[in-house]
Amino acid sequence: MAETRARVLVTGRVQGVYFRYSTREKARSLGLTGWVRNLPTGQVEAVFEGEDSKVNEMIDWCHRGPAGAKVDKVEVARSPAQGEFPQFKIIY
User: Fold this and answer.
1) pLDDT digits (tens, 9 = 90+) for 12-68
2) 20, 28, 37, 64: which is the annotated catalytic residue?
3) pLDDT value at position 89?
């Protein structure tokens, strides 16, 4: 199966609503690796690596986010998977 990487920038009410924690749990359940973090701008940034279909599912989830989130915009930049992440984690 083809693997890919997606860098995602999520804008809206996405901090203080368990977005990072929920992203980590969803990504792990899909078998993805990478990371998620809050940005000083109020956005959430994430990098997902794994099977194309699973990364696409994760991006779809980012358009909704967890209960309490209000996603206004999702920007996605794709590139080839690099295999550098052993797991999916929250970074600070």
Assistant:
1) 999 988 999 999 999 999 999 999 999 999 999 999 999 999 999 999 999 999 999
2) 20
3) 97
Half-sphere exposure of 39 (CA within 13 A, CB side): 13
Rounded Cα distance between 62 and 73, Å, is 9
Alpha-carbon span 7 to 43, nearest angstrom: 13
Which residues constitute the domain of residue 83? Answer: 3-90
Note the pLDDT of residue 2: 86
Q: Is 56 a catalytic residue?
A: no
CATH of the domain at 71: 3.30.70.100
Q: Has 78 been annotated as catalytic? A: no
Number of domains in the chain: 1
Q: Which of 38, 56, 64, 78 is catalytic?
A: 38
